[in-house]
Amino acid sequence: MSAPSELEDLIELMARLPGLGPRSARRAVLHLVKKRALVLTPLADAMAKVAETARECLNCGNIGTEDLCDICQNEKRANGELCIVEDVADLWAMERAAVFRGRYHVLGGTLSALDAIGPEELRIPKLIDRVATESISEVILALNATVDGQTTAHYIADQLEHRVKVTSLAQGVPIGGELDYLDDGTIGAALRARKTV
Amino acid sequence: MSAPSELEDLIELMARLPGLGPRSARRAVLHLVKKRALVLTPLADAMAKVAETARECLNCGNIGTEDLCDICQNEKRANGELCIVEDVADLWAMERAAVFRGRYHVLGGTLSALDAIGPEELRIPKLIDRVATESISEVILALNATVDGQTTAHYIADQLEHRVKVTSLAQGVPIGGELDYLDDGTIGAALRARKTV
After folding, report:
1. Closest CA to A2 of B49, B108, B71
2. What is the three-class DSSP state of B96?
3. Which of B95, B161, B103 is nearest to B128 (CA)?
4. pLDDT in tens, A36-52
């Protein structure tokens, strides 16, 4: 064994994080031990705090510290718009863009026949329930532009047809994108959705 | 703000680790929250434990949980060989190779005129002290084959001249290495150090 067992335990746990392997986990742990007061102790405290307080919002699936997340508690965001995202990371990405002022619904994944994930495994029944009980004027599908994401979007659009207006994010050339580097599908979608200048 | 402040604090701290940036720190924290019982709580506990127990060995600079590390406490490793490494990570790498049965001395860096790191900033005075007081028959320089590493190796060899036998790791073609992909310096070193078959 190359390190004391306490350190080996920590390295083994760190190596389970996405983006870190055994080698980078060792590097991170050595860094932690060297910067004990500055990083290790605050990090251990922050983790213990999050382990204790973080919970899923019972309404939308976002992560917060109470039964209802900050966004579901904020009355100013009850503007009738409901944005459907796959994951909390996507919700955070939308919030960083700071352009959406409504509320969210986190599915917790996408439909996948291969992985046996049907509507009941996601938060889709809860979504249909919310559309029926909350005053929602528009459901905005902000799912990833992948095959699974788009399959899920179609399924949700079918389920909500005639109940509420359903829209989805526009597809086209990303800001700063160069045509030469874009795939054919994106160029095709951008051409079909062309706008009068 | 996109996440509750407890999570933002944790993301900010995680992003300070080597190998993780803001985006991968967010991914790691989401993973932690989802795998609370399996990863987050054990990780917080392991970190608190390391923060409390880990300390530098007073003799060699290795990381352990007592004043003297496991290797310095192990009488079987007092075979007269002392391996000099730059960093604890290098000591771990040597231990993983499981070919060295002596003791170590961790310098804690390399000499660097640019960063104003002289012998006093490293554990070099302690090394000279150890060579004078412990029964050491051979000092093996296992420093990185970088400019700073080799400068430091030359300095130490000078300091210990006539006091003890000083050797250094061989340079040559790494196991599995292909000549076509090796740099000129390595090929030159391997040719100069050629051996009779």
Report:
1. B71
2. helix
3. B161
4. 888 899 999 999 999 99
pTM summary value: 0.76
Residue A21 contacts B, CB cutoff 8 Å: no
Same domain, A44 and A106: no
Q: Which of A26, A50, A69 sits opposite B33 (nearest CB)?
A: A50
Percent residues over pLDDT 70 in chain A: 99
How many contacts does A have with B, using Cβ atoms within 8 A?
149
Q: Are residues A79 and A49 in the same domain?
A: no
Q: Using pLDDT thresholds of 50, 70 and 90, give the confidence band for residue B2.
A: low
CA dist., res. A20 & res. A114, Å (int): 27
Q: Do B153 and B119 have their domain in common?
A: yes
Residue B40 in contact with partner chain A when CB distance is under 8 A: yes
- Of A13, A28, A65, nearest to B46 by CB-CB distance is A13
Phi, psi of A150 (to 5 degrees): -70, -35
- Give buried/exposed letters for A72-82 (b at 16+ CB in 10 A, else e): beeeeeeeebb
Tally the domains of chain A.
2
Q: What is the domain-level CATH number for residue B11? A: 1.10.8.420
Q: Is the pLDDT of residue A172 over 80?
A: yes
- For B72-96, the pLDDT digits (tens) are 999 999 889 999 999 999 999 898 8
Q: What is the pLDDT of residues B131-142, one digit of tens each?
A: 999 999 999 999
Does the beta-carbon distance from A65 to B28 stay under 8 Å? no
Let me know if residue B176 belongs to a domain.
Answer: no
Contacts of B109 in chain A (CB under 8 A): none
**Per-residue tokens: A88:** 């909390």
Chain B CB contacts of A54 under 8 Å are 4, 6-7, 33, 36
| pLDDT value at residue B83 | 94
Indicate whether B106 belongs to any domain.
Answer: yes
Q: Do B162 and B79 lie in a common domain?
A: yes
Are residues B12 and B81 part of one domain?
no
| d(C-alpha A73, C-alpha B4), whole Å | 13
Of B30, B63, B87, the CB nearest to A89: B30
Domain for residue B191, yes or no?
no
Any domain includes B21: yes
Q: Report pLDDT for A110.
A: 93
Kindly report the nearest CA distance between residue B161 and chain A, in angstroms.
Answer: 31
Model confidence band, residue B97 (pLDDT cutoffs 50, 70, 90): confident
Shared domain check, A91 and A148: yes
Contact residues, chain A, for B20 at CB < 8 Å: 19-20, 28
| Whether residues B95 and B11 fall in one domain | no
Residue A14 structural domain: 5-53
